[in-house]
Amino acid sequence: MKTIVLVLVVVHIVRSAIVCDTEYKCKEKVALNRMKCCKVCPNAIHTKNENSLYQFYEYLEKDPNGMSSVGEVTDRAVQDFRKKQKLKYEALKAQNPKLNPSLKKELTMCPHPYVDDFKLPCCMPCVGEYPNESELKKRDGFENKKQPVNGFNQRPQGPMLVAGEFEAPLDVPCCASGSSCCRWCPDMICPRLEMTKVFIEELYWSLCSGADESHRRQVQAQLVENSMMNKLVEDGMFWDPRT
């Protein structure tokens, strides 16, 4: 009985997330575990003048023109949002006349994007080329000179994939773009950025320049330790602390 209730709760949470989804269906990707790695695009780095919803600017340097601030939601804005949601339902019903009428209420009760507590997951760039020693020596003032260790829980490790927006691989979105459904986070990006073949200074100054190096190393070490413990548990070589 408990299992059935738990399954129903999970299904309800996933359904709610998909019904009240973002423009690029990011909640659906997260709920159904469909997130993929991305590429760092020098010509489309997405650190300024971006949509400030879903905690996109939590770690990035704040825009001096206020573009990174989330505005206050007015009653008029909420009403307009409800109308758009009703129109969305009508469009869906036109495509499928047998659509459940309860969906209309669910859509209109979705939170306005400005007050939605959904957080975009941190970007996980795909693995790129390793820089050579001469390229590393040019980076005076940047702390990490060793390959960051990311453990065994399938997180990409080492240098990041850097490629233009319209360069191969074309099926991989630019990190922090709308379709990537992710945001820049220092703990996942900064150690790898400094080991990447093409160093992206704009990203460094927007995301990493103000980071506490000792804190960053501490977090990275904890991630590695957690990954190693999870690997031991999965291999049956250690007791599971979660049980």
Any descriptors?
single chain, 8 helices, 243 residues, 39% helix
Question: Would you kindly provide a written description of the structure presented here, covering whatever features stand out?
Answer:
With 243 residues, the chain is an all-alpha fold. It folds into 3 domains: 1-34; 36-73 and 120-243, no CATH class; 74-111, no CATH class. The protein is 39% helix and 0% strand. It has 8 helices and no strands. The two termini are 20 Å apart.
Write the layout of secondary structure elements.
Elements: H1 2-19, H2 26-31, H3 75-95, H4 102-108, H5 133-137, H6 186-193, H7 201-208, H8 213-234
Count of beta strands = 0
Estimate the mean pLDDT confidence. 77
Oligomeric state of this protein: single chain
Low-confidence stretches: 1-16, 143-154
Which class do the helix and strand fractions yield? mainly alpha
Number of domains: 3
Largest sheet: none
How many individual helices? 8
Helical content class: 25-40%
Shape, please?
globular
Rg of Cα set: 21 Å
Terminal CA distance reads: 20 Å
Fraction in beta strands: under 5%
What string gives the helices and strands in order?
A: HHHHHHHH
Short characterization:
By secondary structure, the chain is mainly alpha-helical.
